Amino acid sequence: MAGEDSREAQRGDEHEESSPLLQGKENDSKICSKGDAKTKTASPVPPPAAEEYGWTADGLPVSHGSVIGEPIRRNQWNSGLFTCLGRNDEFCSSDLEVCFLGSVAPCVLYGTNAERLGSAPGTFSNHCLTYLGLYFVGNSLFGWNCLAPWFSYSSRSAIRRKFNLEGSFEAMNRSCGCCGSCIEDEMQREHLETTCDFVTHVLCHTCALCQEGRELRRKVIHPGFNAQSTVVVMPPTEQTMGRK
After folding, report:
1. 197 located within any domain
2. At 132, is the pLDDT very low, low, confident or very high (cuts 50, 70, 90)?
3. In Å, what is the CA distance from 207 to each residue of 62, 87, 146, 156, 183?
4. Which ranges are annotated Basic and acidic residues under compositional bias (predicted)?
5. Could you tell me if 151 and 202 are in contact, meaning their C-beta atoms sit under 8 angstroms apart?
6. What is the span of the domain harbouring residue 123?
């Protein structure tokens, strides 16, 4: 009896060893142990490097490193600062009007420029009357128009950002290359360009207003000429009553 019991025990052990369920469990445990070993030995993934940003039109940053993300090249002004009579093209009559307004009524020219930049109701009157008041105070107290440029130079910065135009500082750096070393980032460049816009309005105020007016008339339609949808009601045609 003892011999038979030992044989049955050996058969049971052999059956357990040959069972596919037990073999599957052993394989799963081996795979899990290998996976744990790989996770332990795998090095952590470093975080992505911070992207650098450049500045484009309207002061919007775009990332470098790709064709789409590369900064847009600055555009040139349509006319120079001292091109008083404008250019000989289809806008020549408008350029003569801008030159006349800049010489006789700079407040009107500044108001129309501000109206084209922001077509909100009352834009022309608010900017024109404010400019006119500063114009009279400056001429009365100091003998020349020294206060209005402090108010109007921001329009030049707005035009430069809106159409991604080249600023005075960038043009000077491109021509002589002596100022590029003092620029650390794009934010500092923008501050320098804004300072150059202010200096341009103080030293060459009328010429700056005329240049901005010529630029806006070539790129922005006057808000008064915007087409508005209208409903036309046609009267019914003449009707006659037939007799039977």
Report:
1. yes
2. very high
3. 33, 14, 15, 12, 28
4. 1-18, 25-39
5. no
6. 91-222
Entry pTM: 0.64
Domain count for the chain: 1
Instruction: For residue 9, tell me if it sits in a domain.
Output: no
* DSSP calls for the chain: -HHHHHHHHHHHHHHHHH-HHHHHHHHHHHHHHHHHHHHHHSPPPPPPPPPPEEE-GGG-EEESSSTTTSPPPPBPPSS-TT-TT--SSTTHHHHHHHHHHHHH-HHHHHHHHHHHH---TTHHHHHHHHHHHHHHHHHHHTSS--SHHHHHHHHHHHHHHHTTBPPHHHHHHHHH--SGGG--SHHHHHHHHHHHHHHHHHHSHHHHHHHHHHHHHHHS--GGG-------PPPPPP------
Burial environment of residue 211 by CB neighbours within 10 A (0 to 12, 13 to 18, 19 or more) = buried
Please check whether residue 152 lies inside any domain of the structure.
yes
pLDDT at 11 over 70: no
Beta carbons of 116 and 225 less than 8 angstroms apart: no
> Is the confidence at residue 6, as pLDDT, over 90?
no
